[in-house]
């Protein structure tokens, strides 16, 4: 009988819990708007080029610096690329690098923070001082030093960005681990001969998932923003490839001569997407009722 | 006594953090093309000069030994010599750091003075239109790359309205900087924007949390009005965690200064760093990283100490 | 005339009496009160059609179990309910209508006409404001005094509520005071403007039993001196017997019985009240010791010391503690908060390594056993902790929670066997097997504790360590859980180390008792002789402080205590 129950009825509780979280999330208008914005931009950047095809590899010197018109909705840039197409093309890099770097930072941060929190004692103290040191060196400075040494490719860029931004998630996950490891069910497990591995795999990690997901969302927002700084700092992907930050820094001087269409669209794209991820993170945090950054 | 012990322990922690930073910088130094020898002798040095220098400085020894050497030169206040400016890095930084501090401290003050009342107001008007509008605005402010925001501000307030100059004060001394306060407006506002965004969120969260605390109910049960409760009790209790976050925000402020100084041509450490990056002036780059990191660690330490002064519980080692 | 008839007559007389009084004489009058909370999952009705009143100088106790809505009534009386509450009906405090009145007018009422004492002294005071200033604030809310005058009066109030060195303590921050002292400060705030009505919401629940007795004495004395009417909200029948003139019993948002305290506590008419009173553990005043158990100790702590922290702020949590549990017996570990009883249990479980002394479990030195052997040793132990919410991983189903020890220590077991075993223990703890697939969040507190118990028994342990297993539960639920434990112990024969602050519970369920105080064993021995004829002064005071749920007996004990104190 109990076997039947077990196999046919899924554990009702997490479902009910997630349903409650989902309801809380969907009631947060900003968060839902954020989700819509992210989906729209993903479609725009990755499906858009199929519907609106432009040449983003060859320069077209007959078509440089055109204003918005029927043929080029947002005009063209200094080497003749159509701006709408460029926005899609650059968005692919911004979103891909941002997502990958954000996830990478969260993974590193989770492993580091969970280890420090669970092991505790001296290891924790030393590992957290390393995090303090990492936080003490501003990421932009490190990126600028790296840019003075080398210009990485896309994969390298993801690695560099991931390596400079895992510190905040590591602190969050450590705090969560510290709380969870003193929960009564973990103490019970330890007091009745359970292994550390079991405590981590069965209780601590699964219960940290919401914290980690929330941290990852904020991390992606930060990473996309950081990607936008990267070209400005001279670390960006090389032409003819580009990203929104690259478009923005390339258009900086043009803006002074009134060619707003070169900077406003990529600027807005960055702001919208980063806002969207922040709003989603905010909504998820409230929905899961976890602590995270304000 | 207990405060003294706490300060001692906290200072020791800060020292460890600074040591770790020096290790990171030391590693970067060795990752440089040509290594530290080129870092000190400059890009024109020949291979023989480098070999001789390496031997003389013990750079052909093991890395741990070299690290000890490196620490020793640091302790003498020697950060090397700039390739391009032909001046000691310590001197260069010494001239520029005060100006950067002026910029960051002003930005932080303006940011906090705006963020704290905004956050409290949002908490009181929770889920009302005003809260949504400010929340949206702070998301936008947080999500705008500083250089883009600065550009927009310049386009609007300099190019179009002609209210403020597009350059920050250029003087060498602090007196000269303060002599031209109008020129400081745009750089400070640009630097403060994301701070307002972040700290209004912190303050909103902290205020909301405190509003649901039992002591608020006790005060209400004693006949205190909402306003009195807010300003006499909730404000101070919400401020303490926000102050604690301030320490962690110091590196972000310096990062902002890096961009703001370049944007408004303000001759502080950020601009020095920037031009050093353009000319691969490694000693300046790493010297700046080291100084900024130490400043951050000290800033965090100060934030902790301030929190201890404000919150009697922390003073007693309890929370 | 039979007892029931007499009661009926008394009630009729009371009715006539109340009818004769004008409503204005009552300091609190509640009629047809209904409260509904709007939540994420829809509207939740909390209380419905409540009618009660408090006259000057009398104490009405509002009793009930958790979720009965008694605190909601108390908060509604001062208009302090959270924003999602919808209130209907009439509440009159000192002639002022509360329901529907604006905050500004309520603020004039609160702290002057009526004031409130809350349950949690740890959080009821602003941590960053000196206690004197917090009292002065209440004074100046209602009276045009200067800062200095209010501060002087605050010191007087602190003296009045029995805080030693009030001049000095007025400038203390709340964290510098003990829980009992903090509650005295909250009381000082409540009486600062001599209110007509004092609402006390579980005022002693968070306090140790000796402190509880002091606070109740204080409240009783103040109410008598000022002629204040008191609405006392509590779940503790002993407190009711000690304090109340009349009692209203609440069940699921409604009042089911009202009457004078002797009548309700000694001759309850409603079936629920009868059940509630039957479930309350009572200190027995006579009894025989259980025969001493034979056999080698299951667990033994010898000269165990534990220090938490380092430097000057270190705390000596245990100081030379020696105790043991023999096969099949229950040893009650009692003491007030901070006595080290939970730490001792955790040392026995190997969760806290002792700084000095040894722990031997099933005859093996736990401190010297590592790895696989240690895990095998610990598989003979079952654990039940206090908090029903934190004891179970909310992400697992009940069946998974109970099966976890099997997965840990019976690796070879087939999943069919495992399911069968889980079903078997769930039946042992009297849980319907339909619950197996549910999540802990869908269960009540008592059900969760029984799941914890099932998990602890699934490997047939030789020792059960239960750390306050029923402290978070209502009395009726507490009784069923305790009975299940006792019954299974008789059946399965495990030994039990039972940590509790409740002397009545320990007296009923333990054969031996260990009294702890400030990290040391104050005394230990067979339960009955230790608790009925305590050798140590501390144990005697501890027992005297426990209020018994019988107003007549409690009055006698109090009088006796007073004469002994003066003698």
Automatic annotation (TrEMBL), chain A:
Keywords carried by this UniProt record: Cell membrane, Membrane, Transmembrane, Transmembrane helix, Transport
InterPro entries: BP-dependent_transpt_permease, MetI-like, MetI-like_sf, OppC_N
Subcellular location: Cell membrane
Membrane topology: Multi-pass membrane protein
ABC transmembrane type-1 domain boundaries: 91-281
TM annotation in the entry: 30-52, 95-118, 130-149, 155-173, 212-235, 260-281
Family designation: Belongs to the binding-protein-dependent transport system permease family.
Name of the protein described by the UniProt record: ABC transporter permease
Source organism of the structure: Streptomyces spinosisporus
Automatic annotation (TrEMBL), chain B:
Pfam families referenced in this protein's UniProt entry, alphabetically: BPD_transp_1, BPD_transp_1_N
Ligase is among the record's keywords: no
Stretches assigned to the ABC transmembrane type-1 domain: 97-303
Topology versus the membrane: Multi-pass membrane protein
Transmembrane segments: 12-32, 101-120, 132-157, 177-199, 242-264, 284-306
Principal location: membrane
Origin: domain of life: Bacteria
Keywords: Cell membrane, Membrane, Transmembrane, Transmembrane helix, Transport
InterPro entries: BPD_transp_1_N, MetI-like, MetI-like_sf
Cell compartments where the protein resides: Cell membrane
Family, per entry: Belongs to the binding-protein-dependent transport system permease family.
Official protein name in the record: ABC transporter permease
Organism: Streptomyces spinosisporus
Automatic annotation (TrEMBL), chain C:
Compartment(s) where it occurs, according to its Swiss-Prot or TrEMBL record: Cell membrane
Predominant subcellular localization, coarse grouping: membrane
Matches recorded under InterPro entries: AAA+_ATPase, ABC_Ni/Peptide_Import, ABC_transporter-like_ATP-bd, ABC_transporter-like_CS, Oligopep_ABC_C, P-loop_NTPase
NCBIfam families membership: PRK10419.1, PRK11308.1
Annotated organism of origin: Streptomyces spinosisporus
Membrane topology: Peripheral membrane protein
Location of the ABC transporter domain: 28-277, 299-543
Xref: SMART domains: AAA (SM00382)
Any one GO molecular-function label of the UniProt entry: ATP binding
Record-stated family: Belongs to the ABC transporter superfamily.
This protein's UniProt keywords: ATP-binding, Cell membrane, Membrane, Nucleotide-binding, Transport
Pfam families, per database record: ABC_tran, oligo_HPY
Name of this chain's protein: ABC transporter ATP-binding protein
